[in-house]
Amino acid sequence: MSETSRFILELLIEQRPLLDVRAPEEFRKGSLPGAINLPLLDDDQRAQVGLCYKQQGSKAAVDLGHRLISGDLKLRRIHRWADFFRQHPDGVLFCFRGGMRSAITQQWLMELGFDVPRIEGGYKAARQLLMAQLEALSHQRLLRIGGRTGTGKTDVLLTLPKALDFEGAANHRGSAFGNQLTPQPSQVDFEHRVVSDWLQLGQASRLVVEDESRGIGTCYFPTEFHQRLQHKELVMLEAPMEERIDRIKRDYVEHRLARLMIEYPDHGFALFSDWLLGSLQRIKKRLGGERTSELTELMQSALQHQRHHNDAGEHDAWILRLLRDYYDPMYDHQISRKANLIVFSGNAGEVADFASKWLVLSETP
After folding, report:
1. Residue 219 annotated among the catalytic residues of the structure
2. Which of 52, 68, 95, 219 is catalytic?
């Protein structure tokens, strides 16, 4: 491994503060974990410099960049960077290839008395390294926790010392009802979060993960990664229907509404109702028109009762129907093709105990 690669891994393991001086559009597509974006060039300025480079060459582009970033604008940007490094004296900066933009930023900061390191090779080198780490992760020994919807797989996962929470990295619960109040990361940031989480676990060679489909909301696993994941050992988490209904009602009804009411006191319930009914509509094609109409009617009745009586009890009816008639048959069909990989089945306590012992035993040479 090169010195640059070792340096980048150390930055991520130590969670050093990172300053991304690329344009906002580049940053939105993905950055390094935890990076803050304080660009040298904004999107329009970058486009102008890029066009100039294509038409007139490197020197003309550099000259244009200096004209665009001068005077008060230059001072404002330098002082924003300086404020960042005053707050984070161990910080590191980077641009796309570790070239002109980060060199200029570094030079201007040096003139103000800040000796700041930058990532050689920039974001591009770091991205290549992180994707190589994601590939390496797919070759580790991973134990998957599977189970029907509402059995509490994530709850068990989070009790284990060496576990990766893919849904947490994607900021999504993995179903039509799984989106969170905050947006999902970009695809690049999702991949980087998974690797970063693994680095925080010391790149452990034995880990427990949740059995996931390829897509988690708008995020997805690279094809080869997910294909390898499908051949890992599997433990099945079981729970009675009543417990599953209570868990789904707690997570997707009571907790969701409570958060919305805190954030939007005047119209939180309306937002909650729209989200719940809209989530059902997203699976209308798979449910069929008649079943969707029946579930919609049950949902609307439950929402009306909840609004007037502050009681979520009537939500049990549509949750039961959705689990029994849609999610369970679909999951049972999928799991039938993985039966040969199942090494254990049990309730939450039993699965957690098995996974804990598996982690300990697998560390034995």
Report:
1. no
2. 95
